[in-house]
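Hey everyone, long-time lurker, first post.

I ran two proteins through the pipeline my lab uses and got sequence/structure pairs for each. Pasting them in order. The first:
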Amino acid sequence: MADQHEWRRWLLLAAAVLLPIAAGVLWDLCEPLRIRAGDRPLAYEDLTVSRLEPVDIPGVTLTVEDIDTREGFIRVCLTNSGSKTYHYDPYVFMEAEVDGTWRTIPYVWGDTSRVSLLLLGTLRPDENDPLSLAWWHLYGALREGHYRVCAYLWGYDEPMDSGCIIAAEMDLVLRSASAG
């Protein structure tokens, strides 16, 4: 009988410790949805000016394949028609052009380190890799305008910090739900 009470005591102790942790994790996961529910548009003029300078890599392109404005989803394709192999970070990101200046769009939860898990992609010669960006979950409501989707690449045999940014520009045109 004492063993049964001891087991229950450990179970209650574990629940007391783990339930608040689980609740905190769920709260953090729901943060973008709480912000999204408000549909507050960004004040683009207040965004930080981007310090990124995308470059042209011979034989490598990033193209926007599809923009789903209802779901807040963009599909891009990274193409390597050259002879060199590259690594890339599969977490592409967006910037907005405001009055001729590119500006960094902050994630809705503010902390960009929570997005990238340091997963690596490898782009070999004559290969296409489709990538997706769910902007609605990362940035919240965006307004119509000119944007660029950016990806970070570096040579296969080179250190990660030797890489560069490539970008694909696009115009975001929002359609009303009644527009079909």
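...and the second, right after it:
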Amino acid sequence: MSNRFLLLRFTHQTGRLAGRSNDWAIAVIGDAIEIRTGRTGEILTRRPLLRTNWSMPTASDEADKRWKEQMQQSYEIVGHCSFTPEGLAIDISPVVEGMVVGVPINTLLEDTEMKPPALFWSVRAEDWATARGIMEEVAAVNEQLAPRLDLRWIERRGMPTSVPVVDGYVFAFSGYSGSGVLRWDGEVPKGSPATVLLWILLFRKHGGQAVTVTAADAAGNEITGLRLADKLGVLRDLGGADIDTVKPLALSLGLISTGLEGVRPNRMKRFTFS
């Protein structure tokens, strides 16, 4: 489970920055304090709070003092959140009546080491509206299925619309402003949800001629219409998934088909990506 943070936000009321906002998040992780800061909807920079800068005896007391100081600087509480490996705030639990506001105490440290890629993927489209239209089509298809992908949306500053989140993995299209031709290349790190690959393949399937989506494994070998069994290396790198884990969802999404090949003594079925 990802570490949880208390998320606060400052919104500029006047001047050239009027309407824009900055986020500030804090958490106690083990016996340490971590703060993240940045513009709302963008990557929040990680900033550990050194113990030499504490004025309180414990991490929880120091963190409590820090968020209350932010409140005195016109920050407002948004709620609790987690962060993607890239640093985007997700799974925000907004403040509701009766909520106990405080800094989450996380007992386990997360592995913060940068992980190598499990797969690479790219998107080419005339513009963001075209690509987003295909994403909405994918979302509509997914909504009618069981089982289905855990597909949600999150706002990203600078983009004209929200971007997709699959099983907590944010497809932020970092570095793209949302205007002009979409030529985007990215990578998915090891340990990411295996369903990320299924979403990319579903996006590719519905893209047709309007949107070109390609995917390749860590060695640069393109993932095309090959057997699902040939994708075991990628699936294991992503989430440790095997065929039995992914197959029901891939079948539901129409990404694989079953069929017999030639005459085989054991009449074993094979699964092929659409």
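Reply from user beta_strand_b:
Welcome! Quick read of the second one: The chain has two domains: 5-106, 117-259. The mean pLDDT is 81.
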